[in-house]
Every structure is written in structure tokens, then in C-alpha cells.
Amino acid sequence: MRIIVYGSLRREQGNSHWMTNGQWLGDHVIDGYELYSLGHYPGVIKGTGKVYCEVYRIDATTLAELDALRSKGGEYKRELTATPYGSAWLYVYQRPVAGRKRIVSGNWVQRDKED
Fold this sequence. Notes:
Layout (H helix, E strand, L loop, with lengths): L1 E4 L17 E15 L4 E16 L2 H12 L4 E6 L6 E6 L7 E2 L13
Parallel strand pairs: 1-5
Antiparallel strand pairs: 1-3, 2-3, 2-6, 4-5
């Protein structure tokens, strides 16, 4: 199975160790979503922007671990999304984003370069 990561799970980011057992397939940009800072990690919601991501092939154990990390308390919901590498799971943020900073570039790695 495949997963799309767009924030702290990306290469060289704080939680990239969760992807150690995954196979990086490539970079991807998803349209129709907006990226928000939730503090030390981001969330995406459906919207009018684009989000820069990485796509990985992962096993069921890794997916279960990510579900435990991302789905506790209903913070995220997994949705299947098309990529050039085949359908992949995307964690979509489920809480209100009012008052949260939108990362207009859609690139979590570049977030500190935005005003």
C-alpha cells in the first residue's frame, strides 16, 4: 500500500523516522487541498490550493502505527487519493482551522520562509 506524507513525516523532518521501513516512490503535488500549521506539525484540508508531498510504499504494520499516531482523538481521517504511483492514503485534518496559519506555498519544508 502507499501513503502520502506532507509534513513532519517527510524526509529530513522531525518524524521522518516513522518512514524508515517505507520505500520512497517520489515527490508529488496534490491539488484541491490547503496546508495549515498546527504547531510542530501540519494538517491538510480540502480547499483551493496545492500541497507538496512525498509518496511511500509501506507495509500494514507501518500503516497501523501511523493510524495510531494520526487518528487518535479523531484529529485526522485517512482518504484514498490518486498519485502517479497509484492510489495512496492521505491523512486529512478533521478539526477547525480558524486561527491556524495557512502555509500558502503548500510546502511544509519551506514554511519558515513565509511571512
